[in-house]
Amino acid sequence: MTDYSEGHYLVLSDTGKQIGRIDLSAYVCRDDQRLYRIDGDEVYTPGLDAKHLGWIEDGVATDSNGKVLFVIVSA
User: Fold this and answer.
1) Which of 31, 41, 71, 75 is deepest in the core (most CB within 10 A)?
2) Are 19 and 73 in contact (CB under 8 A)?
3) How many other CB atoms sit within 10 Å of the CB of residue 69?
4) How far apart are CA 63 and CA 68, in angstroms?
């Protein structure tokens, strides 16, 4: 399992368009907006009432139906 909070990453949509970044944080952010929270290999909404959205495997975040939420690549 990769600890994404320890590095700098680009976060891409399933079509390859950049939707955000991870910069030494547990959050996927676009500008000052938090889009997702990453905890280990799990993905959540960023708020206090965080909802589980899916899992990350080999840099690909998917929901329980197998839909790609986003892809993480080194910056």
Assistant:
1) 71
2) no
3) 20
4) 7
DSSP 31: T
10 Å CB burial of residue 57 (0-12, 13-18, 19+) is: exposed
Q: What length is written for the chain?
A: 75
- Residue pair 44/50 in contact by the 8 Å Cβ criterion: yes
Summarize pLDDT for 6-62 with one digit per residue, the tens: 999 999 999 999 999 999 999 999 999 999 999 999 999 998 999 999 999 999 999
Verdict on whether the full-model pTM lies above 0.70: yes
The pair of structure tokens assigned to 27 is 């959050």
16, containing H or E segment: none
Q: Which token pair is 39? A: 């905890």
Mean pLDDT of 53-73: 97
